[in-house]
Design brief:
The protein is α+β, with helices and mostly antiparallel strands. The chain folds into 3 domains: 60 residues, Nucleic acid-binding proteins (OB fold (Dihydrolipoamide Acetyltransferase, E2P), Beta Barrel); 73 residues, DNA polymerase, domain 1, CATH 1.10.150; 44 residues, Ubiquitin-associated (UBA) domain (Helicase, Ruva Protein, domain 3, Orthogonal Bundle), CATH 1.10.8.10. 44% of the residues lie in helices and 19% in strands. It is built from 10 helices and 5 strands, in the order βββαββααααααααα. A 5-stranded mixed β-barrel has the order 1-2-3-5-4. The longest helix has 12 residues. The relative contact order is 0.14.
């Protein structure tokens, strides 16, 4: 098992990134909550990792905090939840926010995340309820995400592309980002704002 990687960040294209570790490039998939904390390309980075072994591939997932990785691993223990949905959940809500959703059993908020249908949300909330204490100890809140659309060369365009890559439909992304058009800020800040407005306990 690979516990962590430390090296130079050479690719940052949500949800994918590549870290150069001594001349070897590690392709890693990470949630948006981790992307918000990444340094600029060319700088050193350290990520906690979880390796998923499948028949056709070995996929490395990276996380900025122990709390994120712990939630990811707990989600994988939920029946019929795979890495893709677990990553989507982590991209759509912070560890602290997820604990709140579990406490409130807020199915509606969880189903706003791409790939999470009502039955899946109900199963996740039910099975994670027993693990809430451990989650709450881990939850020192990174915020949810937010974003904005437009031309691919702009910050808004990069945010729009990232949200579509996370599974949101283009029309949904345009609507999500519209309130923040022209508000400035980095791609990560825009994505955080849009997702924060989308996934919120009722």
């Amino acid at each position: 098992m690979i516990g962590f990687v430390r090296g130079k960040l050479v690719v940052k294209a949500p949800p994918h990134l590549t870290v150069d570790v001594g001349g070897v490039g590690y392709d890693i998939e990470a949630p948006m909550s981790t992307f918000y904390t990444l340094p600029a390309i060319g700088n050193d980075v350290r990520l906690l990792t979880h390796l998923v072994v499948r028949e056709d591939a070995h996929i490395l997932y990276g996380f900025g905090t122990q709390e994120e990785r712990a939630l990811f691993r707990n989600l994988l223990k939920v029946s019929q939840i795979g890495p893709k949905i677990a990553l989507s959940i982590l991209s759509g809500v912070s560890v602290e926010g997820f604990a709140t959703l579990v406490k409130l059993q807020d199915t509606a908020a969880l189903t706003r995340i791409p790939g999470v249908g009502r039955k899946t949300a109900e199963r996740v909330l039910l099975e994670m309820k027993d693990r809430l204490d451990a989650l709450e100890q881990a939850a020192q809140g990174m915020n949810i995400s937010g974003a904005v659309p437009m031309t691919p060369s702009s910050t808004e365009g990069e945010a729009w592309t990232a949200l579509v890559a996370l599974g949101y439909k283009p029309a949904e992304v345009t609507a999500m980002l519209k309130p923040f058009a022209g508000s400035g800020g980095s791609t990560e800040e825009l994505i955080r704002r849009a997702l924060q407005a989308t996934v919120r306990p009722q």
